[in-house]
Amino acid sequence: MRVAALYDIHGNLPALDAVLAEIATLGCDRIVIGGDVALGPMPRETLARLDGLGERVGWIRGNCDREMGAALERPPDPAKPWEARLRWAAGCLTPAQCQRLAGLPLRITLDIGGLGPVLFCHATPRSDEEVVTRLSPEARLAETLAGIPERVVISGHTHVQFDREVQGRRWINAGSVGMPYQGRTGAYWVMLGPGVDLRRTAYDADAAARRIEASGFPDAERFARQELLAPITAAAASERFEQMSVQARAKSSA
Ligand SMILES: [Mn+2]
C-alpha cells in the first residue's frame, strides 16, 4: 500500500491541486489529510476538492480545524493572532462542515507495507498543538511517545519537514502543502510505502498569489507574500517554533 500524507494545506487550493496532479502520476492507494485543511484563503473549494476524492481519503484533526468552529461560538478575541482569518474562513463553511472538521479524530493508524503500523497525528500523538521540531530535545519527544506502540509516527503542524530517529522509532514531519516554511516556494508532503519519500511539488506561486489576493481572505496580500512567495527558511522556522515551545512550557509549569 502506498499512502500520500498531505498536512497543513491551509486552504491553499493551487498548492493542493499541484500535489494531487503529482499523486495521480505516481499512484497511491490512500491519502491522509493531516489537519489544518481549511484555515486559509480557499476553505470551501479546498474541502470540495478533497471530498471529491471519496473513500480513499482519511482525515485527522488539526488545531485550526478545532479553532475554526469554536471561533464563531465565542466573542471575537482581538488578542488572538489570525482571529479575523479564523472567523472569515469559518464563515465560508456551513456549520455542519465546521462541526465535521472539529469532530475529526486526533490520530489514525494505517498498516503500510515496508513500514508496518504508521501513526498519523497532527502535532503529537497526544495533542493537536504541541510543538515538535527538528531541534526538539529527544527526551521531550520520548515523553510524547509514551504508550505509543507504532514504530513510525507522521506529524505536521510546524510546517517544516524532518525525518528523525527517536527511541528506536522513526518520527517524520510531512511538511506543509499550503504554508511550508522551507525558504522556497512549493508544496511539501510525504509518500509512504515501502519507504519514506519526503517530497516537494513545484507550482506557480505567482499565479496562486493572485488568486489568493482576489479571495477576500483578510490581509491576503501579506499572506501571499509571507507564506507563499518568500517563506522563512526551515532553520529559522524551527528555531522560532522551538523558542515558542520553551516559553509555553515555562508558562504552563509556572
Ligand atoms: Mn498548520
From TrEMBL:
Q: Name one GO molecular function term.
A: phosphatase activity
Q: Any coiled-coil ranges, and where? A: none
Task: List, alphabetically, the InterPro entries matched.
Answer: Ap4A_hydrolase (IPR050126), Calcineurin-like_PHP_lpxH (IPR024654), Metallo-depent_PP-like (IPR029052), Pesterase_MJ0912 (IPR011152)
What CDD domains does this protein's entry cite?
Answer: MPP_superfamily (cd00838)
Q: Give the Calcineurin-like phosphoesterase domain ranges.
A: 1-190
Alphabetical GO CC annotations of the entry are: cytoplasm
Q: Which Gene3D superfamilies match?
A: 3.60.21.10
Family under the similarity heading: Belongs to the metallophosphoesterase superfamily. YfcE family.
The protein's name is Metallophosphoesterase family protein
Taxonomic source organism: Eiseniibacteriota bacterium
